[in-house]
Amino acid sequence: MSAAAASSHEAVPHRGLITLSIMLATIMQVLDTTIANVALPAMTGDLGASPDTINWVLTSYIVAAAIMTPMTGWLSDRFGRREFFLASVVGFTVFSMLCGLSWSLESMVMFRLFQGIFGAAIVPLSQTFLLDINPKENHGSAMAMWGAGIMVGPIIGPTLGGWLTETMNWRWVFFINLPVGILSFLGCAAYLPNIARRLRGFDFFGFAMLSLGVGALQLMLDRGAEVDWFSAAEIWIELGLCLIGFWVFTIHLMTGKDTFIDAHIFRDRNFVTGLVFIFIVGIILLASLALLPPMLSRLFGHSTILTGLVMAPRGVGSLVSMILVGRLVRFIDARVLVVVGLSLTAWSLHIMTGFTPQMDDHLIILSGVVQGLGLGLVFVPLSTVAFATLDPKYRTDGTSLFSLTRNIGSSIGISVVTVLLTRNTQINHAELSTHINPFNPALQAIPGAAQGNPTGLSIAEQLVNQQALMISYIDDFKLMMIVTLAAMPLVLLLRMPKRAPAGDAVAAAME
């Protein structure tokens, strides 16, 4: 079946089974980006690693996936979209098993590297296939299904990883991919349609420069906190390589012929605006997910399992939102849905600025549900509108750039809020400590503190640490709220495709 046929009114056989098989692979890959995080302490002893070196288990996967994601379009055209997707699922599943069988840190890092290489194409190709096998009027529902997997995966990942590690063994964090990968492969091999190949030359120079920029950026973001950022020569080198790679790639893209990514793709205003939006969504989604589990553990004393239960309603909110918006996007202007979604997201972050160490979990759950609803309302119409006016021949390259931009946004967001959290905690602690003196009436509430009793002073120090950390979390939530509100005017740059006349629901999108 050709791409054109797949996107026409011709019925695609077994569309439901294809969607299920594709989504199994998507959830498996997205889940793996977060499920292994909580298992790192358990891996340290078994693999003979130190707390510093064990982070390469995450870094190797992130960098490999980031470098290979832009390759998705060219490899799909060269080897066939169906064949490449099947190979990616097989490779990802095999190397997941090998990660579970790792006997040393070196073997684990190597297997994670290959897991990232094979897994990089799964998410963008799954989005491409869902757009291909569904007529244009059903793209909203298709993106709702796809978005549910993309957004819910990172939410349940840490909880599932923690449960598997505590009840079984950290190796099951990787072994769990085997049945999912097999089912996905069998379904895709049986029903996934063949897509006509489009041979094109390989721009090695462009790929090398883009890989240099993306790889150096991911290394810098992942290693920064560990080496104290710009106080280390490593970070300056990685920053320089990142700037050189992106600068040379941009010049090459603007002036070269038959470049790695066709520059014409950036002439589509919807697509470019969609990239900016998905970058912001990446910041908000994973940055808030990176902040909440340690906050619940450090300030509220929650276990891994309880943390997962408190955060689960966020995933429920996303699922409900996506089920609704998949239908609403047919009748309501997608730009309106995006604005409503951003407003709900900003409101949820405003609620989070009211967190206190003395509160119960109700406010955390409420903010999570509201944020899940808001991000769902943004993600689905955005994923639909971004590709509504894009030429189908650029679709695979577009989805790979879409995934890459979201991942870079997530990495930058996590790095920024983590740095601010650490530095603001120090600043807040110093500021609050100035008020700890015998003349402060509030100190009288702590027995012996005003008289210099060591026990009382220790309690006062704990309270100062607690309040300094809570204020720092609130500062991060305020920053994300401001970023969300600042993104709203970008909606004016989006344009809706012309609605198809009756009897012709697949009319060409407005250019």
From TrEMBL:
Major location category of this protein = membrane
* Source organism of the structure: Nitratireductor indicus C115
Q: Where is the Major facilitator superfamily (MFS) profile domain?
A: 18-499
This protein's UniProt keywords: Cell membrane, Membrane, Transmembrane, Transmembrane helix, Transport
PANTHER family with a match to the protein in the record: MAJOR FACILITATOR SUPERFAMILY, MULTIDRUG EXPORT PROTEIN EMRB-RELATED
An example Gene Ontology cellular component term from the record?
Answer: plasma membrane
Which residue ranges does UniProt annotate as crossing the membrane? 17-42, 54-75, 84-103, 109-131, 143-164, 170-192, 204-221, 233-251, 271-292, 304-324, 336-357, 363-389, 401-421, 477-494
UniProt-annotated location(s): Cell membrane
Protein name stated in the entry? EmrB/QacA family drug resistance transporter
Pfam families for the chain: MFS_1 (PF07690)
Instruction: State the membrane topology.
Output: Multi-pass membrane protein
Molecular function via GO:
transmembrane transporter activity
